[in-house]
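Quarterly update, task 2.4: iron/sulfur cluster-bound model.
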Amino acid sequence: MPNTYLVKNFGQYNFRHARQILAGTPNPAALITDAERAAAGLAYLHSTRSRRYRLVCDPWDGQAKGNKAQAHGWLQAILQLAPHNEAGLGVNLCPWADGCQDTCLSTAGRNGTTPAARARILRAWAWYYHPELFARTLTADLTMLELDAELGGLRPLFRPNGLTDHLNARQYASERPSLTVSDYTKSAARVLQWLRQGPANLWMTYSASGPDDPNAAAILDAGGNVAAVFDGPAPAACTVVTAWGRRVPVIDGDAHDVRPLDGRRPGGQLVWLQAKGAAKRGGSLVMPPGWGEAAGMVWGTADHA
Ligand code: SF4
């Protein structure tokens, strides 16, 4: 039985009332019906009218990590939809997730707050129920991103899967050659395709699923970079670790999120990310304590010159 009050208010784009109703639950996806979700997604799009950036995090005032890009000459916008099954759509937005959903970045910092969760769920509903409107809204955001970047003397960078692993980064790169698109994915096939075929304005980093990841070695062998989560900060620059049976230089992935700056080298590189949110308590996503040392970490070598 639909909640007619909710439908009525979402239908009238009365987002203030909608928010009041949703405020009582940390996961609105579990609360309402399919039709109500569609109305809520539309209401969300409507509610963003006064914003410069409607769907992506505002690159001038958005995610702390995204903001670091500017110091490196880039303007980065990140799109965050609800990860995995959080939006209750029956569509898994992280199809290669293997338990990592329990310790996802969605639990960290501002992402771990109820308002942030609600917003990414509503974005996911807008994406799912109103794909054409969503796409046009995102196009407007990306046009604004490119304009802002040009005015600021920066290069525009878009990360479509801030908390998901579903949107097609290759498609965004193909549609907008003037934009650089950066993506993390657990799909080895997507990364290997990019390593073979480009395009040049796309950058893909493979997200490893712990020390037993079956694809990390192949990605490294193909010259790709592999991101992994550790329980401590990245070691000093120019560190080389033995990871998945290979000697691999380490990049501090928390210094910024402009992954295209990592570059490519034969044998690949390890993008070291410190655990955040629920991942601080461990989990399948996080390398076991001491994994680097146990695998033969070599400090201070010059291999990474
Ligand atoms: S860690 Fe990545 S793949 Fe796993 S649930 Fe979160 S966003 Fe999805």
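Highlight for this quarter: The chain has ten helices and eight strands.
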